[in-house]
TrEMBL record:
Keywords: Cell membrane, Ion transport, Magnesium, Membrane, Metal-binding, Phosphoprotein, Translocase, Transmembrane, Transmembrane helix, Transport. One of its GO terms (cellular component) is plasma membrane. Belongs to the cation transport ATPase (P-type) (TC 3.A.3) family. Type IB subfamily. The keyword Translocase applies. It is found in: Cell membrane. Its main location: membrane. It comes from Cyclobacterium qasimii. The keyword Phosphoprotein applies. This is ATPase. The chain crosses the membrane at residues 153-172, 192-210, 222-244, 250-268, 406-423, 429-453, 728-747, 753-773. SUPFAM superfamilies: Calcium ATPase, transduction domain A (SSF81653), Calcium ATPase, transmembrane domain M (SSF81665), HAD-like (SSF56784), HMA, heavy metal-associated domain (SSF55008). Residues 69-135 form the HMA domain.
Length: 789
């Protein structure tokens, strides 16, 4: 005890002392159980001196510039809301810490700190001092590890199992009605031995239930552990009354079995969630690719095949996938996705460029220094900068509301059964009371939502459709309006044809054009790049790309530009070539010619879009002129509303106008000029082919070859909601049947403890079988769609 406060362990006392020294004790007004359980230890002053080594620091940190550094630690001691609160308030304990964010599921904390105010060593020392020492193992950096089992839970289960087995042994004479053969002395001895064995079961194995229930009551709420705690207390108390007052045997063997089977169910649930979390994290690899240089030739490969030492090319607006050394003369890197700072950082040859930076300007070559971290890119994807305004998950909140009301209902029924039976047989009353509390635990309700949505995400991932989080599934299910970008989204680069009209192109002009389009990842630039073939590009100066308009650069004394007629101030829109998109070429201010690009839609689009138009309101927004309107009307159908000459800003405005009318909009774009529109929609899907373009503004990334499966994805999202609601119904049916028998005293507490995890297993089996069956029925479990191009 200190300052009239009681602490469960020395660890909590240590945390209190740290908080008290830094005037943070208001924490105890909002949290009932602060800190984390730990053994108090004295840290050697030189324990973390190795963190002063620059080479070690560079291996650990995720990002560093002149002002700040970012680092992510795995902290296995994270286990409750108190831990999250303390770790996310590190900036108060150390003013050099900018911010810290906890990932509770993965037990990780990402810390941003100022280099001039503190150091990595100081940050780690602070974490260790307050009881959250990170696990640092330089030899295993970047390796994927499965979550470790909760050893405390295993110990509790072992204690409960040992005591339950021995209590059953001491109670065998009672089961076979042979107690009188042992004599009263032995009978009483066995009862007292059972009491001794019950003490560690109640005061160790059951402590987590008591703690959780007490926190809920202190916060004036009721969670699923409240009825379990009441059942344990009532069974233990009544057994003591039976033994010491009535001279009977009590129900201590039943109590031991109850805790043993409850903890088995809890261990199973924990393993289920750990497996689900690991599986989802593994499947969260989105189809980002990178251009690898092999003997001066470009080869587009999946990021998973990129190795340390490879030479890569990163074009304008592309994301740097791994920490790399700059081989080009200079680069301008935008780290806004990492730091929030929008001003590009100049980088010189030989300097380190961090993963997550976006190149601005001319294409650059880099030498990969670290293995690509898609986990780090996933964190960027979930950066708060790109968070949607409405993040409420109504299915999860529905589950929480149902669980809360359900628990109050269970308590009412349990106390009603106890009162009813107490007038006739108090032992049956206690049995019915305990059985009702245990058998009707709403664990299945809490498991159905995350497990179903996690399974849906896994199936989506196999089909090349990668979601940011499970909330996207529910939002997909509520969509009523679809908005498609045209170029690079509905159209297929492989089916496009390019025709040039104008002045003859010399070898030098072709090399200049090749170099210019090489800097861009826009679909039209890619098509011209392919049309030029193996032309060797020149080295350009001062390359600039204006999104949605065009490119301009200098070569020696010449200026070269390509783009739209409006951007370059050339061409006659009334007499424009009507065969497709026009990309105009201007050299030294003179209109040189025009590339006419006839688009071809992706495979299956001619059936997909008209089919969607029968169920949704469908819009097409394109930055191009309306040259292909008749062709698109013929292919996509008359129900599609088409809008041309749409700038990125006008696309954003169009979506917001529809939302103002109550529409729920899904935006499907290529992620190049559509970042604002992707973020504005309830759901934004970035379609990608082989290009290395990753847009954190999107909620999902879809392999371009799987775009024709969009109707199945939307249908499956709605199916996921129905499966969750069906699992709720299954759980309610199970609990109603259980209550019917439990209130009559026909079910023992031990049998209830066995049936309770069985309900969770039934929900897991139901959701797994239902989601996989529905996925198979609509063609999403076909192995042929899993292969990545």
């Amino acid at each position: 005890m200190r300052d009239e406060r009681n602490f469960c362990c020395t660890g909590c006392l240590t945390v209190y002392e740290v908080l008290d020294e830094n005037n943070l004790c208001d924490y105890y007004d909002i949290e009932a159980t602060p800190g984390t359980n730990q053994k108090k230890n004295l840290l050697r002053e030189n324990r973390f001196d190795y963190l002063d080594d620059e080479e070690v620091i560079n291996k650990l940190i995720d990002f560093k510039d002149e002002e700040q550094a970012h680092v992510t630690f795995f902290i296995p001691m994270i286990h409750c809301a108190s831990c999250i609160w303390l770790l996310e308030n590190l900036y108060v304990l150390n003013p050099g810490v900018i911010s810290s964010r906890v990932d509770f599921i993965k037990k990780k904390v990402q810390i941003k700190y100022q280099l001039k105010e503190t150091s990595l060593k100081s940050v780690v020392s602070l974490l260790a001092h307050i009881g959250y020492e990170p696990r640092i193992n330089l030899s295993h950096l970047g390796e994927k590890k499965r979550p470790q089992n909760n050893k405390r839970l295993i110990y509790q289960l072992a204690v409960a199992g040992f005591c339950f087995g021995n209590m059953m042994f001491f109670s065998l004479p009672e089961y076979f009605s042979e107690a009188e053969l042992l004599g009263n002395g032995f009978n009483s001895l066995f009862n007292y031995l059972n009491i001794l064995l019950a003490l560690p079961v109640v005061f160790y194995s059951a402590t987590d239930y008591f703690r959780s229930a007490w926190i809920a009551i202190k916060n004036r709420s009721v969670n699923m552990d409240v009825p379990i705690a009441l059942g344990i207390i009532s069974l233990f108390s009544y057994s003591l009354f039976e033994i010491f007052v009535s001279g009977q045997e009590g129900y201590l063997d039943t109590l031991g079995g109850l805790l043993f089977f409850l903890l088995i169910g809890k261990y199973y649930q924990q393993k289920t969630f750990d497996t689900l979390s690991f599986d989802r994290d593994y499947k969260a690899y989105f189809p980002i690719a990178i251009t690898k240089m092999v003997k001066d030739l470009e080869e587009v490969i999946p990021l998973t095949k990129l190795n340390v030492g490879d030479i890569i090319k990163v074009r304008n607006e592309e994301l740097v996938p791994a920490d790399s050394l700059l081989l080009a003369t200079e680069a301008s890197i935008d780290y806004s996705f990492v730091t929030g700072e929008e001003i590009p950082v100049p980088v010189k040859k030989g300097e380190l460029v961090y993963a997550g930076g976006r190149q601005k300007g001319a294409a650059i070559t880099l030498a990969v220094q670290k293995s690509p971290s898609q986990g780090y890119l996933t964190d960027l994807w979930n950066h708060e900068t790109f968070a949607k305004e409405d993040q409420e998950d109504s299915l999860a909140s529905l589950s929480n509301k149902i669980s809360g009301k359900f628990t109050f209902t269970v308590l009412f029924i349990a106390f009603g059964a106890l009162i009813f039976w107490s007038f006739n047989d108090i032992s049956i009353g206690v049995k019915a009371f305990t059985s009702v509390l245990i058998i009707t635990c709403p664990c299945a309700l809490s498991m159905s939502t995350p497990f179903t949505l996690g399974n849906v995400m896994r199936i989506f991932g196999k089909g090349g459709f990668y979601l940011k989080n499970t909330q996207v599934i529910e939002k997909l299910a509520g969509i009523d309006t679809l908005v498609f970008d045209k170029t690079g989204t509905l159209t297929a680069p492989s089916k496009a044809t390019v025709t040039y009209h104008g002045e003859n192109l010399t070898d030098e002009s072709k090399r200049m054009i090749k170099a210019l389009v090489n800097y861009s990842v826009h679909p039209l630039s890619n098509r011209i790049n392919q049309w030029l073939g193996d032309v060797k590009p020149v080295v350009l100066d001062r390359v600039e790309e204006i999104p949605g308009k065009g490119l301009t650069a200098s070569y020696h004394s010449k200026t070269i530009s390509i783009g739209s007629a409006l951007f370059l101030g050339v061409g006659d829109e009334d007499k424009a070539i009507n065969t497709g998109n026009e990309v105009y070429l201007v050299i030294d201010g003179m209109h040189w010619g025009v590339f006419s690009i006839a688009s071809g839609v992706r495979e299956g689009i001619e059936k997909m879009v008209p089919g969607l138009a029968n169920s949704y309101e469908v819009h097409l927004l394109s930055g191009d002129h309306n040259h292909e309107e008749k062709y698109l009307k013929k292919v996509l159908g008359d129900k599609v509303a088409m809008y041309f000459q749409q700038s990125p800003k006008s696309k954003l405005t169009h979506i917001r106008d529809m939302q103002a009318k109550g529409k729920h909009v899904l935006m499907v774009g290529d992620g190049l000029n559509d970042a604002g529109a992707l973020k504005a929609g309830e759901v934004g899907i970035a379609v990608t082919d082989n290009i290395s373009h990753f847009s954190p503004a999107s909620d999902a990334i879809l392999d371009g070859e799987k775009l024709n499966l969009l109707p199945q994805y939307l249908s499956f999202a709605r199916t996921g909601r129905r499966i969750i609601k069906a699992s709720f119904g299954l759980s309610f049916t199970y609990n109603a049947v259980g209550i019917f028998f439990a209130v009559q005293g026909l079910v023992s507490p031990v049998l209830s403890a066995i049936l309770m995890p069985a309900s969770s297993i039934s929900v897991v089996l139901f959701t797994t079988l239902a989601t996989n069956y529905k996925a198979y029925r609509i063609g999403l479990n076909d192995k042929k769609i899993i292969k990545w191009k």
